[in-house]
Amino acid sequence: MGQGLGRAGRQAGRRSTAVYSASGPGQVGLGTTWGRRRPGARFPDLGLLPPELGVEILSHLNATDLCLASCVWHELATAEPLWQGLCKSNWGYCTIYHRRHSVDFSYRHLYLQLDEGCLTFNADPFEGIGYLFSRGILADNAQEIGRFIFSTETLHWQSLRLFLDRRRDVLDELVKLHNFANQFLPNALRQFFQSIRAPEERGEFLEALITKFSQRFCACNLALTCKLGLSPVMTRYQDILLRCNPALNGHLTLTHEIPSMFSATH
């Protein structure tokens, strides 16, 4: 964290504290962030409200606006419940959530570290994941990393794909977190490739993804596997997918070739 405050802090730092400048007794001027109302509108001073109400109002802000609000209402805008909510809404799982915290632990500081770690991951996934390890935010094992990745949308798909191609143990754990029970086969595949982008060209990694998807789909639909012999069906489906160009979403456009398979696995 020594390099900076992360995306939210940097964005807030570039704006003037005059966004929330005082405008009169019990009122605060509205800047560009909250000021898209009629000209001359005034926002009530949250410091004059009961603290619980002030925190509830601020809970509707994102991290950048909350950093700005702290320029005026520092005590309210740095309240731990606000930053805890932001952490868990952006990163649903981290190892540190389940550890005993020291007396000086701060969710605001944790948010800024998580933001910095994910920005670093998007530039260099292995440096980024190392950053999270070094801060004690994430345990260095495949299951914890998989749960972290599954719980967030802050990681860029290209960096994530590069990381998973190298860390197949993490990929295995990530696939296990998907639940395809009672799903229509193409919808399950679409969901899978929304979380793990397929390579643009056919290769070993694409084949590995399709194989892992097939195995997981069968594991989530054991009744169909036993009743309909789903494994051979998935093998046939896998062959068709591997003839497609993933960059053109071909894996979603060949349903006319195997209608009976789709209806059987609905």
TrEMBL record:
Xref: Pfam families: F-box-like, Sec7
Record Gene3D superfamilies: 1.10.220.20, 1.20.1280.50, Arf Nucleotide-binding Site Opener,domain 2
One biological process term in Gene Ontology: regulation of ARF protein signal transduction
Domain SEC7: 113-266
PANTHER family, per database record: F-BOX ONLY PROTEIN 8 (PTHR10663:SF372), GUANYL-NUCLEOTIDE EXCHANGE FACTOR (PTHR10663)
Gene Ontology molecular-function annotations: guanyl-nucleotide exchange factor activity
SUPFAM superfamilies attached to this UniProt entry: F-box domain, Sec7 domain
InterPro entries membership: F-box-like_dom_sf, F-box_dom, FBXO8_F-box, Sec7_C_sf, Sec7_dom, Sec7_dom_sf
Name this protein carries in UniProt: F-box protein 8
Annotated spans, Disordered: 1-24
